[in-house]
Amino acid sequence: MTLALVKTAIELGLISSITVLALFLSYSMLNVCDLSTDGCFTFGASVGAVVAIAGYPYLSIIAAMTAGVLSGFITAFLQTKMGVDSLLAGIVVNTALYSVNIAIMGGASLLNMNKTVTVFTMAENALSGSSLADLSKLLIILIAVAIVCLFQRFFLKTKIGLAIRATGNNPDMVRSSSINPVMTTIVGLCVANAFTGLSGCLMAQYQKSVNIDIGTGMVTIALASLLIGNVFCLHRSIPVRIVGTLLGSVIFRFVYTVALRLKMPAYMLKLISSVIVILAISGPYLKSRLPLMLRSLKHKKGGAMDE
Amino acid sequence: MSDDRLMLDIRHIYKTFEPGTPGEKKVFEDFSLQIKKGDFITIIGSNGAGKSTLFNLIAGSFLTDKGQIILDGEDVTMQPDHIRARAIGRLFQDPLKGSAPGMTIEENLALAAGKGGWLSSVGKAQKKEFRERIALLGMGLEDRMQHPVGLLSGGQRQALTLMMATYNAPKVLLLDEHTAALDPATSEKVMEITNSTVKDNNLTCLMITHNMESALKTGNRTLMMSDGDIVVDVSGEKRSGLKVDDLLGMFSKASGRTLDNDRILLKDN
């Protein structure tokens, strides 16, 4: 495997890791499975692309994150104030965003940014000639990831961050406390989706194009990465878990790259990520059921008098 | 100690569950209760007498159908539960209900202390204060501030919950059989902490219990409930001479039936 390939794997892994960090907030902390993630990723990508194409590369980042906040707010509002089930709220917003995203891209399902000034081309120009020129993309991505990680580390320690964690950790406790779960759910999903939007925006600018399918399967891929990260650090402190989450996304992307080199067709990505999610979630469940299943099997074979 | 100011004034409340259906259940009809500041009231009642419903109505988990609830002079009848929770602390029978198992002791206390704005976090001085206050429980928890609460025993968790509920002295503390799920020794320890917490902070407290002896021993006023009504209400001198048998007699006389609570304990074991 060439060095360039490893570098690309790391870069792509880190860009998606921002979505994984978003799910760390919504799925691991708030305990909401946010199925609008796919649409929101594309939303961030398309809004960011349109603003960048209009000539505002910095603004594109802010615009994409604002788009994410808006999408997260609607998903949260539906499930807390409008009586829509939390999974359904995500699916409905996801579906709606498909139309919205095509509308934003001016009715097209593909936008090309080959000649667009993006945060990546700007970094490349700024660093051209220096020894860091080759690493300009990685540098931009690392800065973004570092900011998101640091933000989460401090955010989850604040009063609102602790309240969000409690909402996901013990709804019974929150119900009899002064925490308003409507507020924590809304804030949590807004912040999480801002990151999803950012992740989408960076992905589009990195690939120099947006396709309406850019976010398809993102929620499953990100969950797979998150669950891989959990293997290392489920019961650790928050900073360790954030690093574990990052590690999970890079490992996921790395294994995928290796599999591609071993002639696995690229279209298998989504099947693989689904299988990882299923294994990671049902594995512990089946393990806990195993003694009962074995006993039941023995019971059937040996009759009822085995005790 | 209690003074004459009313802390909680429940005025003519009505509550019916699932009205208009075959499962309709009228719990309260024109129920009133006045509680003075500093009162520590113990409540005993038969099954389905409405004890927990009363707590749910006071805390705002359910709203009343009719009537008013006045808390320290403020009408809270229509206030949602999370707003009322700023002034009302509450403990349940299940020790797992009052704290977040995946968060550390310190983080749980930070939530309970609730000082500062939403974006503020706990500083060094406050962490020290947490340690000092939790040391008062005498359970050694002050050396485990960074442990997840999920690792604590039921008694430790209930003591922590009590501390969280009373961290900023609430106007009213509601205890719903909060020692019933604990073993006798732990239960006694938590009861001890409860008594000292209520006394030290001069809290107004309502405690549902199924232990008749503890109901007479604890607090300054005892209520017995049956079918959504208070049938026995004793306090002061009249109460201090009472024995469990007297209380049972009063209950039968007033309600026309014997106390049927499948978990009632007549005496401490």
The global form of chain B is globular
Whole-number mean pLDDT of chain B: 91
Note the run of SSEs of chain B as H and E: EEEHEEHEHHHEHEHEEHH
Number of helices of chain B: 9
Give me the Rg of chain B, rounded: 19 Å
Strand order of the largest sheet of chain A: 1-2
DSSP strand tally of chain B: 10
Bin the strand percentage of chain A: under 5%
Report strand order across the widest sheet of chain B: 6-7-8-3-9-10
* End-to-end C-alpha gap of chain B: 30 Å
CATH level-1 class of chain A:
Mainly Alpha
As a percent range, the share of helical residues of chain A equals over 70%
Separation, N- and C-terminal Cα atoms of chain A: 57 Å
Short note summarizing the structure:
In chain A, 76% of the residues lie in helices and 2% in strands.
What's the structural blueprint in terms of helices and strands?
The complex is a heterodimer of chains A (307) and B (269).
Chain A: H1 3-29, H2 37-53, H3 57-81, H4 86-104, E1 110-112, H5 119-127, H6 136-155, H7 159-169, H8 171-175, H9 181-207, E2 209-211, H10 218-233, H11 238-261, H12 269-302
Helix pairs in contact in A: 1-6, 1-9, 1-10, 1-11, 2-3, 2-4, 2-9, 3-4, 3-9, 7-9, 10-11, 10-12
Chain B: E1 6-17, E2 25-36, E3 40-45, H1 51-59, E4 66-71, E5 74-75, H2 81-84, E6 88-91, H3 105-113, H4 124-135, H5 154-165, E7 172-176, H6 184-200, E8 204-208, H7 212-217, E9 221-226, E10 229-235, H8 236-240, H9 244-255
Parallel strand pairs in B: 3-8, 3-9, 6-7, 7-8
Antiparallel strand pairs in B: 1-2, 1-4, 4-5, 9-10
Note down, in words, how this protein is organized.
- The complex is a heterodimer of chains A (307) and B (269).
- Chain A has one domain (3-270): ABC transporter involved in vitamin B12 uptake, BtuC (Orthogonal Bundle), CATH 1.10.3470.
- Chain A is mainly alpha-helical and 307 residues long.
- The radius of gyration of chain A is 21 Å and the shape is globular.
- Chain A has a two-stranded antiparallel sheet with strand order 1-2.
- Chain A is built from 12 helices and 2 strands, in the order ααααβαααααβααα.
- Chain B is α/β, with parallel strands linked by helices.
- Chain B has a domain at 100-169.
- Helices cover 32% and strands 24% of the residues of chain B.
- Chain B contains 9 helices and 10 strands.
- Chain B has helices spanning 51-59, 81-84, 105-113, 124-135, 154-165, 184-200, 212-217, 236-240, 244-255; strands at residues 6-17, 25-36, 40-45, 66-71, 74-75, 88-91, 172-176, 204-208, 221-226, 229-235.
- A 6-stranded mixed beta sheet of chain B has the order 6-7-8-3-9-10, sandwiched between helices. Chain B has a 4-stranded antiparallel beta sheet with strand order 2-1-4-5, with no helix packed on it.
- In chain B, helix 6 (184-200) links the parallel strand 7 and strand 8 (204-208).
- In chain B, helix 3 runs parallel beside helix 5 and helix 5 (154-165) runs parallel beside helix 6 (184-200).
- The longest helix of chain B has 17 residues, at 184-200.
- The model of chain B has no long low-confidence stretch (mean pLDDT 91).
